[in-house]
Design a protein that fits this description.
The complex is a heterodimer of chains A (582) and B (379). Chain A has 582 residues and is mostly helical. Chain A contains 19 helices and two strands. In chain A, strands 1-2 form a two-stranded antiparallel sheet. The C terminus of chain B is likely disordered. Classes of the chains: A mainly alpha (582), B alpha+beta (379).
């Protein structure tokens, strides 16, 4: 394995029998959770809260889909619809996508993966959760008590002078949630720099750590800008400060520059951690070191850097200078290349591998397909000529849902299924999980592929009624149909994962046979992670395909002997067999 | 109702062919690369499945030539697409010198169009086929966007500064006009029709002060009147708090606020236009102004003729008198259910939509000289 665990007493505990005390049961009572400094407990608090916000955002999505089945609406007035789609965007972007993977899996595994006992600043870490919850509550208050419209982009002067909804309250909430991101970012950067275990060099870092590190850098550089911008909108609303409204002498397009300066990099805040998860999944379930480790690591940094220089591609038709647009378009095509590099490297990793098609891997393979489509359709929008027609239509909606839902959400579910046994110490039924991965993949495509077509036909986004163009209806009906499958794919895990907490089988330290420091400590991990800091001697993902192949053959022989005629136990036996490998 | 599956917007401007050439090239690239990656993933996943007897000796983990290959090929292709897209964009952004100028003002939630000879129109834009047209646009309140999918033309309309777009229509016909930048409550209804006319017809149309030279049917005159009196500010496609919808109203039974039920025949409709407070639809108050003495009997006949055909062909379901609560909670129902009606009905609405929603915003930008001239009146 990749390290010599010096902490024999913990590491030597037999598989399937977690250490007697772990981070969950060592301290009891609600207070011990709410005042914890343990990165793992904070991650679990985050998991519960992001799931809650994701659920609310999904309810809004379901309402939108239902309303759009008919050209003149079904149940809502336009004002209500406008508030619903705005709430969907705000909740999903600011309280789920930006936060979810770093704050849950990054928080839980970044310290463990580098051989540390906690984050550099545990109390700052806890503060970030309180900021997140506080900001989230303000956002919800605004939405419940009258609602908010304007979309998640809050373009001025509509948001700053014309909207009668709770823009001020919601922007304040987003401002506060932004600080939660910043504190998490500080923790990631300092922890990665200062707390790596002996022998854990930069190029032995798991790619998930690289991804979260790059994300933290983007957060640190971008979030303050959007925080200032949103504050300026609040000032213009509250005190009539002349900033964005031309009636007061302001410049409405300035807002778009400031907003996208953060919000384009924010796309990378949402997708880079997902890349990290996919690299982990592909490598571990293919039992092969990821292809082109250095290229993936550097492409992550390249995306983080170039991502700051492309914001103007959201504004080709906004009245920004034509020459400015040309430069932004050029750089946008450059930033597409590192993403392509990643996709090709993941695919190449599968060559001469020993691939296990277990549920997390299914999400990862689905991710590759969906992200490829999402990325390539980005070229239509980065190319200025086609963007003129397609921007602000459902084509854009479909494109970013392929990246954000097909990409980030697939990776989130993949990571959740991969690390669930480690985080909770319980196994879920693998066969249902595999079916669920398929439901998500198919439901997703049925939901969002029709939106490419209806956008190409010219349907603008954020439209409540389309009775002006009822020929679009068929695609909306298809999309709504797909979204009910997709919704099922999100509800099922909530049930079977929760059920596994109650009566799931206990997980061994390494139920997948994966490599990485997190798999060398018990499930769930003890509060201090490692009794003694490990010394890392080997490279990351140090699988040898030939050896792995021989192990697999040996296990298959074993499996045939032990489980002959008991095929219905496929999922359980898979776990047991892999324990035999150790 | 049988669905049709439109796969392509009409191509009606000189940009459309160039745009679509690039669009379909990108589609081919997308399919090609997705197929390569998808095939690779599935092929490897089967061939190198755990325990399969494939050769795994001498695996490779890093290969500079391979990395450079899949860095440089996408890069070169990306730069090619960039150049193609940017040059098309420059074409779309730089209008020819001889382009005919038309002014457009966006405001919540309608488009005002002003032709150089003084002809004005609302939520419609008449343009000649074969002649470049340049739109100079400004917004009176928030940012809007002027979008004509069939022309592959879209541009933001910003308060406080002029923006321009240009195009040459190549096909006579009626096309969608949308506002594509979220602008408030009725954003999705801030649209209408772009009418491309053959040069000769267009010359007649503009010479005739923006009036059609073909005599209008009673129904068409009624529709025009319905729009210019702004009836559908309150009587729209659905019952709202402002007023009941008039879809399928003719010869339906209506419940009145005093409990009686009346047949909505010609006499009732005439009375409801001229003296609406005599018999109020259940759930509504005396918001509607009386038109007694405001319009002629001739106009009433035209309006009733239009209403007779609203929502036709009928689904046979009587339109019940609706009350406010039902309107708010249930929305469209009965014959109003969009799934139960068909495209013709919406087509009628899309045809009457021009001149809709003249909700004037109190604000008036001093920078907006055009707006001042234009005076806010439709037609």
């Amino acid at each position: 394995m990749s390290a010599i665990p010096v902490d024999k007493p913990v590491a030597d505990l037999p598989n399937g029998h977690p250490a007697e005390t772990n981070y969950i049961n060592e301290f009891g009572g609600l207070k011990s959770w709410l005042l914890t400094g343990d990165h793992k407990r904070i991650a679990m608090l985050y998991l519960i809260s992001v799931t809650f916000f994701f659920f609310l955002g999904s309810v809004a999505a379901a309402l939108i889909r239902w309303e759009l089945t008919a050209p003149a609406g079904v149940v809502m007035e336009s004002d209500t619809y406008n508030k619903v789609f705005s709430s969907h965007g705000v909740l999903m972007v600011f309280t789920f996508l930006v936060v979810a993977i770093p704050a849950v899996f990054g928080n839980f595994f970044l310290p463990i993966m580098i051989g540390a006992r906690d984050m550099a600043f545990p109390r700052l870490n806890l503060l970030s959760w309180y900021l997140y919850v506080g900001g989230g509550i303000l956002i919800l208050l605004g939405m419940i008590n009258g609602g908010v419209d304007g979309g998640w982009t809050f373009y001025t002067p509509y948001s700053s002078m014309y909207s009668n909804s709770n823009v001020t309250l919601v922007l304040t909430g987003i401002f506060i949630v932004g600080f939660s991101s910043i504190t998490t970012g500080i923790n990631f950067i300092v922890t990665t720099h200062k707390m790596r275990a002996p022998g854990m060099t930069w190029f032995r870092l798991p790619l998930f750590v690289w991804a979260n590190y790059a994300t933290a850098v983007v957060i640190m550089l971008g979030t303050p800008v959007v925080a200032i911008t949103l504050l300026l909108v609040v000032f213009e609303r509250a005190f009539k400060l002349p900033i964005f409204n031309p009636e007061l002498g302001g410049d409405p397009v300035l807002f778009q520059h400031l907003f996208w300066f953060y919000s384009h990099p924010a796309v990378y805040i949402m997708i880079l951690p997902a890349f990290g998860i996919i690299s982990e999944l592909i490598s571990n379930f293919a039992r092969k070191r990821v292809f082109g480790y250095h290229f993936i690591a550097f492409s992550t940094l390249a995306i983080a850097g170039l991502g700051f220089l492309v914001w103007g591609h959201h504004m080709f038709i906004s009245s920004q200078s034509m020459y400015q647009g040309i430069v932004f378009s050029l750089i946008s095509f450059l930033v597409a290349v590192p993403s392509a590099i990643k996709v090709f490297n993941w695919t190449a990793t599968l060559y001469k591998a020993n691939i296990r098609l277990q549920s997390p891997m299914l999400y990862a393979l689905g991710f590759i397909g969906l992200f490829t489509v999402g990325g390539l359709t980005g070229l239509f929008l980065g190319s200025m000529g086609t963007d003129v027609h397609l921007t602000a239509t459902y084509f854009v909606v479909a494109h970013f849902h392929y990246v954000m839902v097909g990409g980030t959400m697939s990776a989130f579910l993949g990571g959740l299924h991969y690390w669930w046994p480690k985080m909770t110490g319980r196994l879920y039924p693998e066969s249902i999980a595999k079916v669920n991965a398929l439901i998500v993949f198919l439901g997703f495509n049925l939901t969002f592929f029709p939106q490419f077509i209806v956008g190409w036909l010219g349907m603008p986004r954020r439209y409540h009624y389309y009775y002006l163009a009822p020929e679009y209806q068929v695609y909306h009906v298809m999309s709504t149909l797909g979204s009910s499958f997709l919704g099922l794919g999100f509800i099922l895990p909530a049930f079977y994962l929760t059920k596994s907490l109650i009566n799931g089988r206990k997980a061994s330290a390494n139920p997948w046979g994966a490599h990485g420091l997190e798999w060398e400590i018990p499930s769930p991990p003890p509060t201090t992670n490692f009794l003694q800091i490990p010394i890392v001697l080997d490279e990351v993902y140090d699988f040898d395909p030939v050896t792995e192949y021989e192990l697999d053959r040996a296990q298959q022989a074993l499996e045939g002997h032990h489980y002959d005629g008991m095929m219905d136990q496929d999922d359980e036996s898979a776990h047991r067999v892999e324990q035999g490998e150790k | 109702m049988p669905f049709n599956f439109p796969l392509q917007p009409p191509r009606a401007s000189s940009f459309a062919d160039q745009h679509d050439a690039l669009f379909y090239t990108l589609c081919i690239l997308t399919v090609l690369f997705t197929a390569i990656v998808g095939f690779g993933v599935i092929f490897f996943a089967i061939k190198y499945k755990k325990g399969s007897p494939a050769d795994r000796s001498r695996p490779i983990y890093e290969d500079l030539r391979l990395e450079l290959t899949w860095t440089i090929i996408p890069l070169i292709m990306g730069l090619g697409i960039f150049y193609w897209g940017a040059s098309l964009f420059v074409t779309m952004r730089v209008p020819p010198k001889d382009a005919q100028e038309i002014y457009v003002i966006g405001k919540q939630w309608m488009w005002h169009v002003q032709h150089s000879n003084g002809v004005r129109e609302n939520n419609t834009l008449h343009v000649p086929v074969g002649k470049p047209v340049k739109l100079t646009m400004i917004s009176q309140d928030v940012i809007h966007a002027f979008y004509i999918p069939a022309f592959r033309a879209q541009m933001h309309v910003v308060p406080g500064r002029y923006t321009t777009m240009w195009f040459t229509a190549t096909q006579a016909g009626k096309y969608h006009l949308f506002c594509s930048m979220y602008c408030g409550t009725q954003h999705s209804e801030m649209g209408g029709t772009v009418v491309a006319l053959e040069p000769k017809e267009w010359a007649e149309w503009i010479a005739n002060g923006g009036q059609s030279t073909v005599p209008m049917t009673l129904e068409q005159s009624g529709q025009k009147l319905y729009n210019s009196l702004a009836c559908n500010n309150c009587h729209g496609v659905k019952d709202t708090v402002k007023g009941p919808s008039l879809m399928n109203i003719y010869n339906s039974r209506r419940r009145m606020s005093n409990g009686e039920t009346v047949l909505a025949d010609d006499a009732y409709l005439r009375e409801s236009i001229l003296r609406p407070h005599n018999r109020l639809t259940a759930g509504y108050g005396q918001e509607m102004p009386e038109y007694q003495g405001q319009i002629t009997e001739e106009d009433v006949i035209k309006l009733v003729a239009f209403m007779k055909n609203l929502g036709m062909p009928t689904t046979g379901l009587p339109v019940s008198g609706t009350d406010r609560e039902a309107a708010v909670t249930a929305g469209s129902k009965g014959s109003m259910s969009p799934l139960a009606t068909n495209a013709i009905q919406y087509q009628q609405f899309s045809e009457r939509q021009p001149d809709a929603t003249a909700t004037d915003r109190k604000k008036d930008l001093s920078v907006n000289a055009i707006a001042a001239q234009q005076g806010g009146a439709g037609n």
